[in-house]
TrEMBL record:
Cell wall formation. Adds enolpyruvyl to UDP-N-acetylglucosamine. It comes from Nocardioides bigeumensis. This is UDP-N-acetylglucosamine 1-carboxyvinyltransferase. It is an enzyme of class 2 (transferase). The lineage of its organism: Bacteria, Bacillati, Actinomycetota, Actinomycetes, Propionibacteriales. It is found in: Cytoplasm. Its main location: cytoplasm. Signal peptide: none annotated. It catalyses: phosphoenolpyruvate + UDP-N-acetyl-alpha-D-glucosamine = UDP-N-acetyl-3-O-(1-carboxyvinyl)-alpha-D-glucosamine + phosphate. Pathway: Cell wall biogenesis; peptidoglycan biosynthesis. Its EC number is 2.5.1.7. Keywords: Cell cycle, Cell division, Cell shape, Cell wall biogenesis/degradation, Cytoplasm, Peptidoglycan synthesis, Transferase.
Amino acid sequence: MADDYQGRIGNLIRDARKHRGMTQQQLAETLGTSQSAINRIERGHQNLSLQMIARIGAALDSEIVALGAGPTHLRVTGPTTLTGSIEVKTSKNAGVALLCASLLNRGRTTLRKVARIEEVNRILEVLASLGVQTRWFNESDLEIIPPAELDLDNIDETAARRTRSIIMFLGPLLHRSDLFELPYAGGCNLGTRTVEPHMAALRPFGLEVKATDGSYHARVNPLVEPQRPIVLTERGDTVTENALMAAALHPGTTIIRNASSNYMVQDLCFFLQKLGVDIEGVGTTTLRVTGVTEIDVDVDYAPSEDPIEAMSLLAAAIVTKSEITITRVPIEFLEIELATLEEMGFHYSRSEEYDAANERTRLVDITTKPSDLHAPLDKIHPMPFPGLNIDNLPFFAVIAAVATGQTLLHDWVYENRAIYLVELNKLGGDVKLLDPHRVMIEGPTHFSGTEIMCPPALRPAVVILLAMLAAKGTSVLRSTYVIHRGYEGLAERLNELGANIETFRDI
Ligand SMILES: CC(=O)N[C@H]1[C@@H](OP(=O)(O)OP(=O)(O)OC[C@H]2O[C@@H](n3ccc(=O)[nH]c3=O)[C@H](O)[C@@H]2O)O[C@H](CO)[C@@H](O)[C@@H]1O
Ligand SMILES: C=C(OP(=O)(O)O)C(=O)O
């Protein structure tokens, strides 16, 4: 039995290592051991101490090697000053949209430099359960090959329920099946997130959905087609993407009004254009889509960089008063954030613009200058693009905390996200919740380290981590899955800039 147990652990470690794209040699170097020792461990020929298992789990930074030891935590020693250069990864939100859109294509889809994050992993698990073959190569390129028929009865419900993005299967699937079920969408716990706009946008394509027992029961009438422009009642990102994907395989022209023109929608449009779908109005709120009856091409596409990760890194530099260079910043999706920061006294320089690999999105490199910030004259609130991005709003909480004066943040969109920002008080902040949508933040704050449980929302969780970087002493951030949902190797990459963040598990 003992041998069997060691063998199973060895297999888990090998799978997790491969999943991270690491060689045995690389893992050995991280752990300060030899490649042959790793080889022995993976073949189940090594008796491992619990401590060693925990160290391997931390090095692989993976929930897969939980080995019953539970979630990962971060121990941060501050205050930190960051130096050096960091590259922005491609976006979570385009990544998941493109994975869903790959279901439109009967040919092979290759996506370049996809962020290796848990949200992507969950969608890959769902795709695998439907019979889609996916394969990572070159570390972060992804090949997706669909089967002739999707195995819709076998959908991985556990994976599906952990992401909001599963809702974007509706648009492509309505072309694949007349009757199917999808588990309810999950994602960040931000209060009620309606799916009604999705149903309204897809009804003109014949989709009727009944929501019961934790599932959406979908029935498609293929004879129904849009008779007039589809007017979205909300300018939402995923609802626009769903309408686009439904329109892509609808032969004829569909007009979508009040469409989101946000970054992930643009990436999806560029991808669909490569699949042969004609789309006019990309970057505006009226999209004119002329679809095709079948898509069967080998397509290669590189999504653009993540404006939210870029904002997170800017916030890291600002709260730690550091000079760092953030490369590959998608500038058109960060202009209002930067203008607001400039009004607050933030100094930086930027390079000339250059093209992202999709040849459409404009990028710059930004070098931050340590600055003394003051509160803005007006409140800060988000708007659909080209406004200040709703996912960037939480970062203004930790920035406002280090600025002198009072800043009002108004998150009119989410019922529950602002609430988590009050957690900054545990680190010495002065954040008052005026109502579920508004927080008043008074600075400057001298953060000091403490232990905090990760809020169940990605951006607020990262906000707390950034405050910990600036905090004096040791902090612990517990249960960090939610961060891995949207950021690849954030702790390791911040450590490369000089942060002191250790990943550990309870054993
Ligand atoms: C996978 C993905 O791409 N997720 C993004 C997407 O989620 P997603 O498109 O799923 O966003 P939701 O549909 O949840 O919309 C967010 C909230 O905004 C409200 N709303 C939205 C638009 C509008 O014009 N009026 C309005 O009231 C909705 O009712 C909802 O409460 O967009 C959100 C808002 O940009 C981002 O936070 C998410 O990161
Ligand atoms: C709210 C977010 O994501 P999701 O839509 O995946 O929950 C986010 O990216 O901050």
